[in-house]
């Protein structure tokens, strides 16, 4: 039965065209954004998981940036520490040289004073971002990561490094040098300086080693965080990224369907006109 009031064929064709247009819009959106899950309405589970993982990835990146600052501070201190070790060895060598008879001990004392002044200068210049680990020494707590506890809350993981106060080493050597320059006997003070220098060299070597080990530990943690962030980003991408090859193929198919549905609607809309021939 044909009716001029209700065109069921046109209604069906229009419904089909609307569905195709909706799918076409979704496909075009996926192609333009590169995402198949953009909000909770697309896939609530994937959206929640991917958003949480993206947040963790962002926190890891921020922690990594903080580690870079800490590493650069330690690296700067390590550079100064290596120079202090060299100068402390020179101090020990000059103190040993002064043990021989006939040596101009006053001149050696002047050399020792110059070496301690140079050490003080290096310590004063071993500063990064306002932090001077050689002067301060002591413990430095560094945040190395963020983890989720059993209740879903966030907790930071920390590592504590303890550094030698190189300023104390220089202070000890400076005091001994002052005793040498103030003494008239000379030889006993030089003997004491040699023993002290040996002890302070050992401290400086141990301190420089600690700085190097600390720098390496931070680099290792940064490498882990980089790999962890890459894994998280890859996991997020697997859940929310669109398969561009698949979407391109779907787009072409939907465009063809859209054309066919449009033609079908046009045919359905023209059907009632055929009724006019019955009245001619």
From TrEMBL:
Residue intervals of the Flagellin C-terminal domain: 206-279
Cell location: Secreted; Bacterial flagellum
A Pfam family: Flagellin_N
InterPro entries per record: Flagellin, Flagellin_C, Flagellin_N
One example GO MF annotation: structural molecule activity
Major subcellular site: secreted
Residue intervals of the Flagellin N-terminal domain: 4-136
Claim: Secreted is one of the keywords in the record: yes
UniProt keyword annotations, A-Z: Bacterial flagellum, Cell projection, Cilium, Flagellum, Secreted
Keyword Endoplasmic reticulum among record annotations: no
GO cellular component: bacterial-type flagellum; extracellular region
Function in brief: Flagellin is the subunit protein which polymerizes to form the filaments of bacterial flagella.
Family label: Belongs to the bacterial flagellin family.
Protein name, entry field: Flagellin
Source taxonomy: Bacteria, Pseudomonadati, Pseudomonadota, Alphaproteobacteria, Rhodobacterales
